[in-house]
Amino acid sequence: MSAEPSDLKTVHVDLGARAYDVLIGSGILARVGDFLSSGEPVAIISDANVGELMGERIQQSVMAAGLSSFLIEVPPGESSKSLDVMAHLLSRLAKKKVPRAGTIIALGGGVIGDLAGFAAASYLRGVNFIQVPTTLLAMVDSSVGGKTGVNLPEGKNLVGAFHQPKLVVADLDTLTTLPPREFAAGMAEVIKYGAIADRALFDRVAKGVKPEDADLADIIEKCVAIKARIVEQDEFEEKGLRALLNFGHTIGHAIEKATKYETYLHGEAIAIGMRAAAWLSVQQAGLPQLDADRIEGALKANDLPISLKPGVSSDSVLAALGNDKKVAADGRNRWVLLSSLGEAKSGCEISSDLASQAVYRLTLK
Length: 365
Ligand code: NAD
Ligand code: GLY
Hints:
Blueprint: E1 9-13, E2 20-25, E3 42-47, H1 48-64, E4 69-74, H2 83-95, E5 103-108, H3 110-122, E6 128-133, H4 136-142, E7 147-152, E8 155-162, E9 167-171, H5 180-197, H6 199-205, H7 216-233, H8 249-258, H9 266-284, H10 289-301, H11 314-321, H12 325-329, E10 335-340, E11 343-348, H13 352-361
Parallel strand pairs: 2-9, 3-4, 3-5, 5-6, 6-9
Antiparallel strand pairs: 1-2, 7-8, 10-11
């Protein structure tokens, strides 16, 4: 991962007054300050792992730009995406007298991006927000598109706001410390982009991707560009287009919920969900069996699970899916299915029997 500014890639997210750039490259974390002209004090929100690794570097960069900053660290993990942690953050911002013209930087993975983004959306009814994603998942997905929020005991992401960042700075060098399991979890979302929108990208990633691969920046750029084009056309998920990004997520979210968010990383649950969605796509949307097999192969090649662990029952996942006939008849579960690799459609309805079969098959190897 050599650091040449000329290697810098930029994806523009064209949202009119809310437009911004996603910068992808090596060595750019230490240049975050260059992109700030005003907006102090800068509140850098991170988790304890990432704050320890990179907090000082980003603070130095902000200081070199002549701006004051302070670092707030929260405990790592999904449990920090809570109203309690959010209240703590808001109090810290108020105590530091961050004004409306102040800036919040999210330094971390999707948990920090969602949490800090929601704080930025809510504090003083909205302050400047910059995403500095440090996981592969956050680089290709959660840092782009403006979805922010926290969880409730009743469910995931139940409170939140759309709040687009002013800038996203994705420094590939940060991935050198990312645990391999977390990298693999991010690959689930990468495979998703190929499956729903870009067969050539799928063909590439189906071979397996490692952090040191020379084309990693290209792969991330392609994913971000796919998401940017979708978000530009359906920013508030009203037209069925942004919903395409949820391929594999209906069952994936149910797996996360059934296992209390403790057994699987988000990307791992989505990987298993994509296997089920591929099977459903063969049954209902004309996806060739060969293509469904290739999705399974791509997940395996990227060290992702494709089956439920022995202790996780299909019944518990079905219960989390709300898969009774009444719910299905009400059309609550809308599915994203593939007609071919690279072609997806949203809003598909499937019978509860078929959904049950799809989930049951996940208990088989
Ligand atoms: P995460 O933020 O929990 O990060 C994973 C772990 O890796 C954490 O322990 C973190 O401390 C550590 N870590 C992060 N970067 C590191 C680095 N460079 N080196 C060493 N350790 C590092 O998890 P995630 O997978 O990035 O994000 C998952 C969250 O993203 C979920 O809450 C999910 O709901 C959300 N999400 C949001 C969107 C969206 O559009 N807003 C999209 C997808 C997922
Ligand atoms: N991760 C889904 C979305 O941003 O819409």
